[in-house]
């Protein structure tokens, strides 16, 4: 299958319009239609239902979406790595759960560039499920996720176990009831389940976010209460900017390092893992 055909498919699927897809791809609408027809002929399936108000994916089209995404991403990655500049001899790609980005990634990149300047680094911040899909597809070399993956061709190791603590911008006592200034940060499936058990009568918070950095920025600016990893707010607690709510329930948030059992470049992967573990050891020692 042609990559340009799959790009056309993805644009129509995203926009719901052959016309918008043609404008984004800078080609004619008839060319977009022709590329979709070729895909449908090769797959033996209709991918879109054409309607007056736009185009809608069929069941086959929805099933084809993830394969098209994988193929286009793999092609883009191949173009980058095959076209390495002369000063680089290799490329390593790390996928990291977005809530762990700020604590781990900058220090790891700095060590890689200092100790292995001939190696290029590529980092993807995403949610755990997407990272596992990219790892299984070979689009990244290793991943740090909140979701463990037991799979014959992958190695899954515990990397860091955060304790999530309840903090507030004002000193206060613990309560199991609804807090009007509580900001709910989604730390993943295990946290959601444990949080529901700990606070069974809690009403919906006024604000929910899926990224810890956004929640922290919000309460520092507007005030509030939320759960954060103890290590990430330690300095703010010492400064008195935040206050830990004593006797509030705490939750564990483990993260895992996952990588192929048989990598394409074992030595390079071992180097990347060694420096990641060095960074994490420094983080845990500092708390």
UniProtKB/TrEMBL annotation:
<dbReference type="Pfam" id="PF00126">
    <property type="entry name" value="HTH_1"/>
</dbReference>
<keyword id="KW-0804">Transcription</keyword>
<dbReference type="InterPro" id="IPR050176">
    <property type="entry name" value="LTTR"/>
</dbReference>
<dbReference type="Pfam" id="PF03466">
    <property type="entry name" value="LysR_substrate"/>
</dbReference>
<dbReference type="InterPro" id="IPR036388">
    <property type="entry name" value="WH-like_DNA-bd_sf"/>
</dbReference>
<dbReference type="InterPro" id="IPR000847">
    <property type="entry name" value="LysR_HTH_N"/>
</dbReference>
<keyword id="KW-0805">Transcription regulation</keyword>
<dbReference type="InterPro" id="IPR005119">
    <property type="entry name" value="LysR_subst-bd"/>
</dbReference>
<dbReference type="InterPro" id="IPR036390">
    <property type="entry name" value="WH_DNA-bd_sf"/>
</dbReference>
<protein>
    <submittedName>
        <fullName>LysR family transcriptional regulator</fullName>
    </submittedName>
</protein>
<keyword id="KW-0238">DNA-binding</keyword>
<feature type="domain" description="HTH lysR-type">
    <location>
        <begin position="1"/>
        <end position="58"/>
    </location>
</feature>
<comment type="similarity">
    <text>Belongs to the LysR transcriptional regulatory family.</text>
</comment>
């Amino acid at each position: 299958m042609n990559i340009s055909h799959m790009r056309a498919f993805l644009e129509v699927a995203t926009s719901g319009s052959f016309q918008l897809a043609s404008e984004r791809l800078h080609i004619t609408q008839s060319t977009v239609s022709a590329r979709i027809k070729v895909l449908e002929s090769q797959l033996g399936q209709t991918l879109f239902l054409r309607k007056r108000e736009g185009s809608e994916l069929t069941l086959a089209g929805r099933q084809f979406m993830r394969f098209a995404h994988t193929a286009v991403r793999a092609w883009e990655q191949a173009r980058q790595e095959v076209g390495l500049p002369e000063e680089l001899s290799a490329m390593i790609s790390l996928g990291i759960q977005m809530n762990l980005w700020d604590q781990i990634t900058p220090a790891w990149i700095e060590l890689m560039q200092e100790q292995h300047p001939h190696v290029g680094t590529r980092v993807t911040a995403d949610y755990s499920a997407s990272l596992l899909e990219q790892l299984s597809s070979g689009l990244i070399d290793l991943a740090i996720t909140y979701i463990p993956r037991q799979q014959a061709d992958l190695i899954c190791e515990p990397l860091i176990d955060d304790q999530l603590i309840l903090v507030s911008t004002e000193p206060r006592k613990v309560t199991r009831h609804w807090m009007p200034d509580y900001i709910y940060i989604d730390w993943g499936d295990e946290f959601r389940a444990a949080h529901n058990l700990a606070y069974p009568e809690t009403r919906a918070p006024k604000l929910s976010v899926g990224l810890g950095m956004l929640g922290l920025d919000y309460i520092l600016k507007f005030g509030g209460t939320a759960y954060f990893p103890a290590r990430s707010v330690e300095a703010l607690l010492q400064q008195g900017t935040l206050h830990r709510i004593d006797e509030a329930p705490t939750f564990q948030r483990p993260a895992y390092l996952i990588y192929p059992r048989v990598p394409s470049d074992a030595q390079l992967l071992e180097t990347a893992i060694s420096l990641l573990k060095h960074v994490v050891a420094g983080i845990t020692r500092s708390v």
